[in-house]
Structure formats: C-alpha cells, structure tokens
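Re-run with default settings, no changes from the original entry. Doing this only to confirm the output is reproducible before filing.
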Amino acid sequence: MIRTKRIYARPSGDDGARILVDRLWPRGVSKEEARLDRWEKDLAPTNELRRWFGHDPAKWEEFLRRYRAELAGKGEDLARLRREAIDATVTLLYAARDEEHNNAVALKRYIEEE
C-alpha cells in the first residue's frame, strides 16, 4: 500500500516506511522530527520541472505528463518502491501545501498505474 503525507504532519505507526520524495529538504524540519527511512531525491521532479510547475493547479495535467517522462528513466528505483509497497505500507512524504497537486501524489499514481 502506498500513502502520501505532508512531512509536517506527525509521524504515525501506520506510516510504514517513510520516504521523502522531494528534491529539497523541507524547511523547519529536523532529521529527527522527520523520522525518515530514506530520502529519494532522484525520484523527485528535476529542479527545472519543479520551478516550472510552482504548485499551480492549472499546470497539473502538463506537470503529470512531464514528470512521467522523467520517471521513465528511473526503473530500478521505481521497482524497489513497488516491491516495498507489495509487502508493507510505504508513505511518500512531501512538503507542498497542496495535498492534491504535488509530486508525491503524482508519483503514487504513476507507480499504481504501471
């Protein structure tokens, strides 16, 4: 099972493996507070795509298309996440305020559709 969650929300025992999927470390969060299992920077959108998107919901569909193109070259990392999610809960963490239009939601969708 794959879940998404803001990194600013309290960690929970239901989170399973906590994986940060942002390229930048979230402001104001210490590594102890984050309680990460790992940080997958390489699965985050490139800086160029991240800046272009700017969390603008009007750009969401185009962001999904471009992000999917970037993810196409990340087969090994994606396969690892898929395997983990089959055996246990994986929570993809993100810093964005928008809980519906962010890269963790897009990544979850991509993994589940593949």
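The radius of gyration is 13 Å. The longest strand covers residues 2-6.
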